[in-house]
Amino acid sequence: MNKKSRDHDFNENLRRLFNEEKWEDRAYAARNLGYMRDGRAVNLLVKALKSEKNPSVINRIIEALGRIGHPKATMSIIEVLKREVNREFIDKMRLFYIIESLMKIGDKRALTYLNILFNSNDTEIKNLTLEAFDCIDPHWQENNEKEIPNL
Predict the structure, then answer these.
(1) Are the C-beta atoms of 48 and 30 separated by less than 8 Å?
(2) In a domain, 24, yes or no
(3) What domain range is 20 assigned to?
(4) What phi, psi does 149 have (nearest 5°)?
(5) Cys-Cys link to 60, which of 4, 9, 29, 30 (CB 3.0-4.6 A)?
(6) CA angle 81, 60, 66 (to 5 degrees)
(7) pLDDT (tens digit, 9 = 90+) per residue, 13-32?
(8) Any idea of the CA torsion for 119, 88, 45, 24, to the nearest 10 degrees?
(9) What's the confidence (pLDDT) of residue 120?
């Protein structure tokens, strides 16, 4: 794919992400932007993450930010994590997207916030969180000044 064609696809996916009425089209656009792995999309995906209401589109935006892997996305994903853990009914699938995206980004700032998931009653969430800690900072147990959670 040449640069002109790639830029056209990039711009078309951004247009769809912000302008399509059908959530399926917005989700597809977010997913495509993630597959493009173009750092130019990070700020715009973060903007879309803040305004999007559809749960499926939010998950695809988080997934796309993880695929791109730029640390600029870390704190925006953390904001979604903080909202999610304070909800009455937690979306387990969203937590998976969040943890996996933060793992791909690899920003150590995420560790402080992921720490709250060690208290999860869900074994899969705990195990994925542990995997994220090991991926982001293989020496996290040695570096952690707090008591290591019982897993």
Answers:
(1) yes
(2) yes
(3) 3-143
(4) -65, 150
(5) 30
(6) 65
(7) 999 999 999 999 999 999 99
(8) 120
(9) 85
Taking all residues of the chain, what is their mean pLDDT, rounded to a whole number?
92
35: CATH: 1.25.10.10
Helical H runs in the chain? Answer: 3-19, 23-36, 42-51, 55-68, 74-85, 92-105, 110-114, 123-136, 140-143
Q: At what angle do helices 92-105 and 74-85 cross, to 10 degrees?
A: 160
Q: What's the CA gap between 93 and 99, in Å, rounded?
A: 10
Pick from 109, 148, 107, 105: which is nearest to 130 by CA? 148
In a domain, 112, yes or no: yes
Query: Looking at the domain assignment, is residue 148 inside a domain?
Result: no
Read off the pTM. 0.90
At which residue do the structure tokens 């150590």 appear? 108
Q: For the chain, what is the domain count?
A: 1
Q: Which two tokens stand for residue 119?
A: 């208290």
